[in-house]
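During the reporting period the student researcher (J.K.) took over the structure-prediction task from the postdoctoral fellow and processed the backlog of single-chain submissions. One of the processed entries is reproduced below for the supervisory committee.
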Amino acid sequence: MLAVVREYNKEIILGVILFSLPFLVPLYGLGIDANTLVAAISTIFAIFTGFLIADAMSNYLRLQSLIAEENSSLITIADDAEQIDKKGFIAVHQAIDEYMIAQLDLNTLNHFSQTQKQMDRLHSSIHQLMVTPENNIIYDHILTMEEKINSARQEMTLAAKKTLTPLHWITLITLAVLVVVAILTVRNGEWWISIFIGLMILGVEAILVILRDMDNNHLLETKLSYENPREVFHAINKPPYYPFLSSIRFRVPDENGKIRLGDKAKKID
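J.K. obtained the following structure tokens:
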């Protein structure tokens, strides 16, 4: 709970201010039918935000699928490499480990250009495996998984980008302000009406915050936490890795009680 408060402290402060508006702003009217005005502006706001949320959600869901596909392919490569080459698989596991650590240290889903060197090392280690004729089928499977990873990475470069432009945000904020101004006109001085309107204003703010966090992938990054990478680290027989600045609540040891913690000064190369 405290972590959420720290993460959204600015939004919470703004929310308190917005919730206080019905109690602080003097009563006023616009000289027209307030109910009709509120309905009209709210409808436009709902249609516009609904369209943008649907667009952001499609990227959100696709990113989930691509991340799961990439991680499952890495796990498959780790298992198959160990079957093919009882010595050479160590280099493959090390390359996978370095790639996952690089992702986590960058702390963003849009890490693809910065992790290309790690992918190149993985590609090199795969092609240095000693493959016997009876393992050709397994090796072909590894190459297929590598191709899937490359394909997923290419698609993620597009899905991880923000879709909302400054013009979208100007329109959204303008409509949000109009909604707030309009609903403030329906007050009659009763405290329970002011509370109801304050909650409606908080709802408008919450919609904008959720849309922002979906568009910049923050919700997905928070949802995934470090659970998916844990499965990959388990496949290569390594303790789970957590960046130096990761929250303590995310640091779950493996079955042996071990974790690896990043170095604050470490650089990705």
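The committee noted the following: The chain is about 70% helix and 0% strand.
J.K. will present the remaining backlog at the next meeting.
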